[in-house]
Specification:
The complex is a heterodimer of chains A (111) and B (114).
Chain A (H helix, E strand, L loop, with lengths): L4 E3 L2 E4 L5 E6 L6 E7 L5 E8 L2 E4 L8 E5 L5 E5 L8 E8 L4 E3 L3 E5 L1
Parallel strand pairs in A: 2-11
Antiparallel strand pairs in A: 1-3, 3-8, 4-5, 4-9, 5-6, 7-8, 9-10, 9-11
Chain B lengths: L2 E4 L3 E5 L4 E3 L1 E4 L6 E6 L5 E7 L5 E3 L5 E5 L4 E6 L8 E8 L7 E3 L3 E6 L1
Parallel strand pairs in B: 2-12
Antiparallel strand pairs in B: 1-4, 3-9, 5-6, 5-10, 7-8, 8-9, 10-11, 10-12
């Protein structure tokens, strides 16, 4: 079946612009996670959704970062006024149990 | 708090020789542990998982890992490396809370020489 999909696959933006990243989870998966992977590092947790509520936002690095989810479907991660340190691969994962299935990621480059 | 430490950032082996990727964990309770693999320009793939059942866990592509509570280790092994095993490997622990978020190690880059 279809896995987790993310769009765009690559995004280059100028410093100070806003960007929106999209995640389509596996159908029926109630849990959705966003992670960030900086160059040469492991993944850092950003935010967790159960359905359309976000009980854990503890990983969001600043108030420039926000995320929404429509029901148990699509999620968008928005970064306002992007900075160069926001350059990273942003990964989304969905889950029904302890196993998380990852999307291919969005590579964000802030110039 | 839960954490994992991957002891080697780079490992290089020859094709056909054994692979050992080391991971130590820190957890206040019996953890759920995972190994993920990331091939260049591809998504993360789950290799295997430990969730307090058998301490020797078998995964895909001939990999296995042994949970050793006394050593707080969860090392990944494979008897014979293949060229296609060249990738980055992440040791991961679940935070065990209501969110079940994953805490990743910094990764080990495995190179396989012909």
């Amino acid at each position: 079946g279809a896995g987790v999909s993310q769009s765009p696959s690559n995004k280059v933006t100028e410093k100070g612009k806003d960007v929106e990243l999209r995640c389509d989870p596996i159908s029926g998966h109630t849990a959705l996670y966003w992670y960030r992977q900086r160059l040469g590092q492991g993944l850092e947790f950003l935010i967790y959704f159960q359905g359309n509520s976000a009980p854990d936002k503890s990983g969001l690095p600043s108030d420039r970062f926000s995320a929404e989810r429509t029901g148990e479907s699509v999620s968008t991660l928005t970064i306002q006024r992007t900075q160069q340190e926001d350059s990273a691969v942003y990964l989304c994962a969905s889950s029904t149990s302890y196993e998380q299935y990852f999307g291919p990621g969005t590579r964000l480059t802030v110039t | 708090a839960q954490s994992v430490t991957q002891l080697d950032s780079h490992v290089s082996v020859s094709e056909g020789t054994p692979v050992l990727l080391r991971c130590n964990y820190s957890s206040s309770y019996s953890p759920s542990l995972f190994w993920y693999v990331q091939h260049p320009n591809k998504g993360l793939q789950l290799l295997l998982k430990y969730t307090s059942a058998a301490t020797l866990v078998k995964g895909i592509n001939g990999f296995e890992a042994e949970f050793k509570k006394s050593e707080t280790s969860f090392h990944l092994t494979k008897p014979s490396a293949h060229m296609s095993d060249a990738a980055e490997y992440f040791c991961v622990v679940s935070d065990g809370g209501a969110t079940n978020k994953l805490i990743f190690g910094t990764g080990t880059l495995l190179a396989v020489q012909p």
